[in-house]
Amino acid sequence: MCRHLAYLGPPRTLAEILLEPEHGLLRQSYAPADMRGGGTINADGFGAGWYPAGSAAPARVRSARPLWGDTSFAALAGATSTGAALAAIRSATVGMPVVETAAAPFTDGRWLFSHNGVVRDWPGSLAGAAARLPVTDLMTLDAPTDSAVLWALVRARLRAGDDPADVLAGTCAAVDRDAPGSRLNLLLTDGATIWATAWRHALAVRGHDGATTVASEPTHEFPDWTQVPDRHLVVARPGHHDLYPLTGPRARG
Ligand code: GLN
């Protein structure tokens, strides 16, 4: 299962956020610690999005290659500072294509989004929900994958102005009804707040030095990581986060 990470806080280089931590995304690409649900390494591409200073819209790079072999990204990451980033490394679900456009983060306007997991019985299980989307959204999907369809579903509600926490909670609940047993760790940011779900997959959060990192796996051995309990939503801002159960009112959204 893929791994993802979001950071909000004082400006750091993408290399400091993603590549240099002893168990950061770079190491997790070839030696992840917790691949519950399948896969051994995350070699099927990666992506990183960040908010350049003064810009409400993120920049993003994606690749179908393993993170560990991309020297161009390493050079870019060392030279790029940001106070808000969301990145992912991919282990493609069997049957889904290994292409650049299937790598998270997906983006639209000010949003960056990632899905870590799998939708059971895809594509049939998502057909009903997808059929309610505008046809043009389906015609312009990033890739024929479960994650890209989840992003289209989330994006449609964000565009309608729905509350991001309700959107993620409602998406998890609805998809789990249609596709029971799915793993639905969703990660969303607008550069100011992070929203993340733990739904049958690992997620941890750490507040440190006026920053907050939300990640599939702790990037350091520091004791200040909190494991997010299953079926919970994290809402995080720099240096602060709250946890909400996803089985309560939010899950009805
Ligand atoms: N199912 C998604 C894909 O193949 C995500 C994979 C994962 O989390 N390992 O893109």
UniProtKB/TrEMBL annotation:
Enzyme class: hydrolase
CDD domains: YafJ (cd01908)
Annotated Glutamine amidotransferase type-2 domain residues: 2-253
Keyword Hydrolase attributed: yes
SUPFAM superfamilies given in the database record: N-terminal nucleophile aminohydrolases (Ntn hydrolases) (SSF56235)
Record keywords: Glutamine amidotransferase, Hydrolase
Catalytic activity: gamma-L-glutamyl-hercynylcysteine S-oxide + H2O = S-(hercyn-2-yl)-L-cysteine S-oxide + L-glutamate
The protein's Enzyme Commission number: 3.5.1.118
InterPro entries hit by this protein: EgtC, EgtC_Actinobacteria, Gamma-glu_amide_hydrolase, GATase_2_dom, Ntn_hydrolases_N
Pfam families reported in the protein's UniProt record: GATase_6
This protein's pathway: Amino-acid biosynthesis; ergothioneine biosynthesis
Function: Catalyzes the hydrolysis of the gamma-glutamyl amide bond of hercynyl-gamma-L-glutamyl-L-cysteine sulfoxide to produce hercynylcysteine sulfoxide, a step in the biosynthesis pathway of ergothioneine.
Xref: PANTHER family: GAMMA-GLUTAMYL-HERCYNYLCYSTEINE SULFOXIDE HYDROLASE (PTHR43187:SF2), GLUTAMINE AMIDOTRANSFERASE DUG3-RELATED (PTHR43187)
Identification of the protein by name: Gamma-glutamyl-hercynylcysteine sulfoxide hydrolase
Organism: Pseudonocardia kongjuensis
